[in-house]
Every structure is written in structure tokens, then in C-alpha cells.
Amino acid sequence: MSRSRMAKMSTTLLLTITYPPSYPNQPPLLDISLPPNAPKPPHLDLSNDRDPLLSSLNTVIEENLGMAMVFTLVTVLRENIESLILERVASIQASKDKVAEEAEAQENAKFHGEKVTRESFLRWREGFRREMEALEEEERVKREALEMKGRGAKKEDKLTGRDLWEKGLVGKVEEEEDVGEDVLEGLKV
């Protein structure tokens, strides 16, 4: 995790150090607590984490007996707290990633159907053909119903000019040849 992100997640803790009379030859007494009115750190529970954090300093105390060790203790404690917080943040992120991955897998599962084999294709094709035949039959029935309905509505068919002429239903028309000449005479000036 970057330093800027760690700065945003800063946690303030108090390290209380009690020096015994023969310090540095004797280890100091240590205690970790929250400052008064401080918010509870989001990824650190002092009631559960206090003892493991303090016990992680025992090896550092043993290595530094006889020397001033407060700065070293504070540095090691800070590193241990940071690594503990980073582990917890990483585990939370890992669980979120796992949930997101499972959701994505479920989403993608609907795009993966049955694998196409010769047998599965033949089953599908047979079903498809039956479905198409049923649709064609339904369409044919609708068409026939419309044709029957249309025939019943048309009791009298209109005859074309040719039909009228062939049946002799058109009366005799007198052909006037001079009509055309009259029109031409009227045009002459």
C-alpha cells in the first residue's frame, strides 16, 4: 500500500513506556492504548491485538538489553501495526474480489450453453424444423381463413372492360367518323 494511502488511513495509538530503575539493563514495561476521545481504528482491535503486538517486541527487547531501545521499539511496533493493518485490508479486498469474481462467473455462465456436438445439433435441428413447420401451418391456416373471408365478402366481382366486351354487355357504340373532321374544321382559321 502506498504511503499516501497509509496517511489517509492513519491510526493514532499511545505507547506507554514505564522505565524500571535499572533501565536499559532491564526491559521497560509497555502498554498500547487509544488516545482519549479518539475514533476506533477501522482495521485494528486493541482488545485482541494488544498482546500479540507487545509480544512481538520481546525479541527486540532481548536483543537491545543494555542499550537505549525506545526508538527501536517504536519503529518495530509501527512496522508491525502497519503490516497487521495491510494484511487485514488485503484480506478484506481479497474477499471482495472473490465475491466479485463469483458474481462475474455467474454472469458469464448464462453465456455458456450446451456444447454443440453432432447429437445435440441433430436434436436442435429436429426441434427447429418442427417449430418452423408449426409456424408455417399456422400462417397457412390464417391465410386460408382470410381468403375464405375475402371470398364471402366479394359476391359480385367487378368485370373488366374486356370481360364486359366479351360478354356482350357493352351496348353498340355508333362510330362517328366526321366528329374528328368537325374538330379540325373548327380549328382552321
Description:
With 189 residues, the protein is mainly α. It has helices at 3-8, 46-55, 58-63, 70-109, 118-153, 161-167, 178-187, and strands at 14-18, 29-33. It is rod-shaped and about 145 Å long. It starts with a helix and ends with a helix. The mean pLDDT is 82.
In short:
The protein has seven helices and two strands; from the N terminus they run H-E-E-H-H-H-H-H-H. The protein is mostly helical and 189 residues long.
Radius of gyration using CA atoms only: 50 Å
Measured distance between first and last alpha carbons: 111 Å
> How many DSSP E strands?
2
Strand content: 5-15%
Level of helix content? 55-70%
Spatial ordering of strands, largest sheet: 1-2
Number of helices: 7
The H-and-E topology, N to C, reads as HEEHHHHHH
User: What does the largest sheet look like?
Assistant: 2 strands, antiparallel
Shape: rod-shaped
Structural class: mainly alpha
Q: Which residues sit in consecutive blocks of at least 5 with pLDDT less than 50? A: none
**Overall mean pLDDT score?**
82
